[in-house]
Design brief:
single chain, alpha/beta, D-Maltodextrin-Binding Protein, domain 2, four-stranded mixed β-sheet, binds beta-D-galactopyranuronic acid
Length: about 325
């Protein structure tokens, strides 16, 4: 027994050493792998669709050796849970908002500032260019993130929805508005005149329905896909946040992949980033039409008043990113 065990330990050690040297790579690389991916949105939503398309390409390019199984619609919980699962390797790909990543990697919070981008076109230039690339690299290099950042996705512009028009900051007085769980967002809503309430996305529909909150804020595709428009009928175009989304890979799994597989995933991720954008534009157009057809009232607002009102938030949180902010403004 003892001898067998010793022998087993010895051969395991040898195997581990061989694996560390890369000797195991070809054998391991042949193993069939099904990566789990997760998203809070349902099937058909641009972010979900883009990752599924990436999965199909992976499957073709590896002759079925690697595939992606998608868990949409918050099946694996909210974004905080998804990040945690990816960190421990229980999930390989998590598609989350930068809003949820700010608490993990601080620099990302620059994208979470109100009115930080002039418009969506500028946001796209920033994420496609050197600033975007550096942020992805920083997330991947950060030991505490335990994630590899693969790429960006679009999430349009966030506007307030509730059951009454909000055309100027005073209109939000006394209204509880759900915000993503990050102090910047809560303070943004408070500065806009309302009362920001931090809440998980998975609790929001019920909270809107039961009046726990009076409203929320998000892009048109979310308002439609999450059925929030059935309980919040007025969409006020405050445009206070333009937050990109990100898709990340579990570092724990990443470190077991061959260099070739890593390179293939990176290449397909860039393609997914660009493909999602086409899907996003088409879906947003459709969402606006469908929301209007369903009786949602779109309200033009005094955007400048909201911009002015949120200046204290940019001053408070933006000062430490002064150099980055300058670069963004110049992009
Ligand atoms: C959506 C985004 C989700 C989630 C959600 C939220 O726009 O796609 O990832 O962040 O907003 O408000 O929590």
């Amino acid at each position: 027994m003892q001898g067998n065990r010793r022998q087993f330990v010895r051969s395991s050690a040898a195997l581990a050493a061989a694996a560390a040297l890369g000797g195991m790579r070809p054998a391991l690389a042949q193993q069939k792998q099904v990566w789990k991916a997760s998203d809070v949105h349902p099937l058909g939503y641009p972010t979900v669709e883009a990752i599924q398309r990436m999965g199909k390409k992976l499957e073709t390019q590896t002759n079925g050796r690697i595939s992606i199984q998608m868990f949409p619609s918050m099946q694996l919980g909210g974004e905080k849970e998804m990040i945690e699962q990816a960190q421990v390797g229980a999930l390989q790909i998590a598609r989350i908002s930068v809003g949820a990543m700010g608490p993990v990697v601080d620099d990302l919070n620059v994208f979470n500032l109100p009115f930080v981008f002039k418009d969506e076109a500028q946001m796209r230039r920033v994420i496609d260019g050197p600033i975007g690339q550096k942020m992805l690299d920083d997330i991947s290099a950060s030991p505490q993130s335990r994630l590899i950042a693969l790429g960006w996705m679009d999430a349009g512009t966030r506007n307030v929805y509730s059951n009454k028009p909000v055309s100027k900051p005073g209109d939000l007085k006394g209204m509880k508005i759900r915000m993503m769980g990050n102090p910047i967002f809560v303070e943004t809503m408070n500065a806009m005149g309302g009362t920001g309430v931090a809440m998980g996305f998975n609790e929001l529909y019920t909270a809107l329905q039961t009046g726990v909150v009076d409203g929320a804020e998000n892009n048109p595709p979310t308002l439609l896909a999450q059925n929030h428009y059935t309980v919040s009928k007025v969409y006020s175009l405050t445009g206070h946040l333009i937050i990109p989304e990100i898709f990340v890979f579990s570092r724990r799994t990443w470190d077991t992949l061959s260099k070739e597989d890593q390179a293939m995933v990176r290449k397909l991720s860039r393609e997914a980033q660009l493909e999602q954008r086409q899907l996003w534009d088409a879906y947003t157009k459709q969402a606006v039409d469908k929301l209007k057809a369903a009786g949602v009232q779109f309200v033009e607002v005094d955007k400048n008043a909201f911009f002015q009102a949120t200046q204290p938030v940019r001053d408070k949180y933006g000062s430490k990113y002064a150099a980055l902010l300058k670069q963004i403004q110049a992009t």
